[in-house]
Amino acid sequence: MSKKKQVFEPKVNGQVGMYVCGVTAYDLSHIGHARVYVTFDVLYRYLRHLGYEVRYVRNFTDVDDKIISRANELGEDPISLSRRYCEEFRQDMLYLYCLTPSVEPRVSDHMPQIIDMIKQILDNGYAYRVEGDVYFNVDKFPEYGRLSGRKLEDNRAGERVAVDSRKKNPADFALWKAAKEGEPCWESPWGLGRPGWHIECSAMSAAYLGYSFDVHGGGMDLVFPHHENEIAQSCAACKQSNISYWIHNGFVTVDSEKMSKSLGNFFTIQQVIEFYHPLALRLFLMGTHYRSPINYSDVQLESASDRIFYIYQVQNI
């Protein structure tokens, strides 16, 4: 979190633990997602090339508001819907020549670990209960905002965002959500419900890498609130929690706007590889510094295709 260049030094000599936040599996993945996982595939391959034994964990979020909403639209079971799109994502990664991670945990398979972590956070005084919900109390964590550079005052009431009046601070976030009709839910000490998004990654990373590991990564859009909240809740559960390097890749843009499903300006991986070789898409995504934005266009993909063709020609001379 120093935001400075540092010599890479793993916590255990010769070994690297790396956690990358995976997709929320409710639809086909677009090339903005592809950039994340190609970026970290390159890092994974390079660390292995240097001789490190790398334990690479990349999760699937299969319990989430977006999944529930999409399942309701289609009249499907949310978990079944998500599992289908998890398999689509795996196939996309094979198309893009991404190595399979060491572990690919799903949220729905880790409820005991998630519930145990929430219990620990409550026991340590960093959270509170409200009518079946459990919220993290950001005022109890003085270092909140260190990763993103945001101050708590930035999240105070008075903005155009609806604030839950039951919260002690508008920035407090849900660790556990009380059950609602028609949503998947699990038994917990606080009643039936499901976890908040942020606690899911903290619990799964701790389950496979412990509270102290080397690399945590994802897209730049995850810096706040997701990764900021992960740091807070992991440290609240275990004071020894420490991640050495936070790595975030830049966006894929279309006409200088971030590619996203919410804006409707996205192209799925499968749409793109209908017209271009998957290696051309991979090369395009690697065509600039990993933190810089990269603008998607047919011209860029044509150029990447030409370079791939040239490489094949040179190899066969």
UniProtKB/TrEMBL annotation:
Its EC number is 6.1.1.16. Transmembrane segments: none annotated. Its cofactor is Zn(2+). GO terms for cellular component: cytoplasm. Keywords: Aminoacyl-tRNA synthetase, ATP-binding, Ligase, Metal-binding, Nucleotide-binding, Protein biosynthesis, Zinc. Residues 8-304 form the tRNA synthetases class I catalytic domain. Coiled coil: none annotated. GO terms for molecular function: ATP binding; cysteine-tRNA ligase activity; metal ion binding. InterPro entries: Cys-tRNA-ligase, Cys-tRNA/MSH_ligase, Rossmann-like_a/b/a_fold, tRNA-synt_1_cat_dom. GO terms for biological process: cysteinyl-tRNA aminoacylation. Belongs to the class-I aminoacyl-tRNA synthetase family. PANTHER family: CYSTEINE--TRNA LIGASE, CHLOROPLASTIC_MITOCHONDRIAL, CYSTEINYL-TRNA SYNTHETASE. HAMAP family: Cys_tRNA_synth. This is cysteine--tRNA ligase.
